[in-house]
Q: What sequence folds into this?
C-alpha cells in the first residue's frame, strides 16, 4: 500500500495520520489500530479518545519537584511518610517511576526535564536546575542524589549540578556504577568493569548495605 | 514496574489503561506513548483524541458494499468509472485496501464482515451474505470474484457463497492459488505447490494475462 493512500473515508484518514505520529507506529500499524477501534464497540474508542484528551488537558506538573500530577503538589511531595531531607534528581517523569519501583528511595524527587546537551541545544537554563538550587537553599535538604543516565549528557549535567551546589551545606551523591547484578564479567564493557575496579568497596561494607 | 502500578496521576493511569487495550500495546508501551503525548505540544494529543472520537462516531458503512465510508454510499460504489458488472467479495475493510493497491480490480466490492467459523460462533447469518445474493439477484452483476483468505474458514465461506449463487446467472470465480512471485520452489509449502501443479495453465496464456 502506498504511504499516502486514502482509505475512502476522510475520518479514517485523519485517525490513521494522527495515530501514525505516535513513536514506533507506522502507517500500517496505525491503520490496524484504527480498524481495531472501528471493529470494537463504540465505548472503547470514545474512552481512549477522551482519556488522551483529559490527560493532556488535566495533567499538571508538581510545583515542587516537577513530576506529573493532577494536583498542585504531587502525592510524593505531599506525603508525610517521605524523607524530606533527601532529594533524588532524575531526568524525566519515567525515571521517577523506575526508581519508585525499586522501593530503595524513601525521599523526594526533582525532575530536571532533560539533560544538558549542547548538540541538541539544551542548556542548563532549559532545565529545572535553578529550582533545584532554590530548594536546597531553603535548608531542609541534606542530600542530593544524582540519578541521571550514565551517558556523556548525564555526566555533564551531574557535574554542572555538583558545581552549582558546591557552596551549599548539602551532600551530593550519585548512583553507584559497576557490574550489573546477574551479569557475567566476560560480558561487561571495559569502561564499566574498569570503573568498578577503581571504585571497589570493602567487602564488609556490602553487609551493612543490606539494612 | 508492576503491572498495576499507579503513576501518581489518575489521568495518566486512565490514559495508559486505555492505550494498553490496543492490540500489540502492553502497559510499558502504553506508558511510553502517554508520556510522549505529554511531552509534545497540546495540539498533538488533542488532535489524536478527537480524530479517534470523530472517526468512531462519524464513520458509516456503505449500504451497498458495507465498506467503510463517510457517506451513505462509498466512493467506489458511487464512482462512474468502476465496472458495475464485477463484484469482488472480501472478508473485511482492510482487504478492500489491499486489493485496491494492486490496481487489478476495476469493479465493485462486497465486504462480508468476517468468515464462516463455527468454532468462533460465526454463522452465515452474521455475515453480509444475504445482501450479496440480493445484489446479484438484481441482475447487473455478471461476475462474483471470491477473494477470501486461503484458509479453512475462507474455503468454507467460498463454498457456501458458491452454493447460494448457483441458481443465478452469474459467473463465480476465485483468486488463483499457486506460487508466490519471487518465491523459490524449495520453500513453497507442499499443498500450494501440489495445487499449482493441478491448476497449471498453458504457457501461452501467461502472455495474454499481461494485458
A:
Amino acid at each position: 500500500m502506498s504511504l499516502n493512500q486514502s482509505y475512502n473515508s476522510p475520518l479514517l484518514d485523519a485517525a490513521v495520520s494522527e495515530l501514525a505520529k505516535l513513536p514506533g507506529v507506522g502507517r500500517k500499524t496505525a491503520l490496524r489500530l484504527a480498524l481495531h477501534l472501528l471493529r470494537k464497540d463504540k465505548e472503547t474508542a470514545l474512552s481512549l479518545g477522551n482519556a488522551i484528551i483529559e490527560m493532556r488537558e488535566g495533567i499538571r506538573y508538581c510545583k515542587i519537584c516537577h513530576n506529573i500530577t493532577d494536583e498542585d503538589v504531587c502525592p510524593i511531595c505531599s506525603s508525610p511518610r517521605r524523607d524530606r531531607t533527601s532529594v533524588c534528581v532524575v531526568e524525566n517523569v519515567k525515571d521517577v517511576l523506575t526508581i519508585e519501583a525499586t522501593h530503595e528511595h524513601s525521599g523526594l524527587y526533582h525532575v530536571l526535564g532533560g539533560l544538558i546537551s549542547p548538540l541538541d541545544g539544551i542548556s542548563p537554563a532549559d532545565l529545572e536546575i535553578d529550582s533545584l538550587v532554590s530548594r536546597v537553599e531553603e535548608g531542609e535538604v541534606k542530600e542530593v542524589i544524582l540519578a541521571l543516565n550514565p551517558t556523556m549528557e548525564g555526566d555533564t549535567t551531574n557535574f554542572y549540578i555538583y558545581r552549582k551546589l558546591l557552596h551549599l551545606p548539602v551532600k551530593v551523591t550519585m548512583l553507584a556504577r559497576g557490574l550489573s547484578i546477574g551479569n557475567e564479567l566476560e560480558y561487561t564493557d571495559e569502561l564499566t568493569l574498569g570503573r568498578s575496579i577503581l571504585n571497589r568497596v570493602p567487602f564488609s561494607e556490602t553487609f551493612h548495605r543490606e539494612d
Residues 42-58 of chain B form the longest helix (17 residues). DSSP finds nine helices and six strands in chain B.
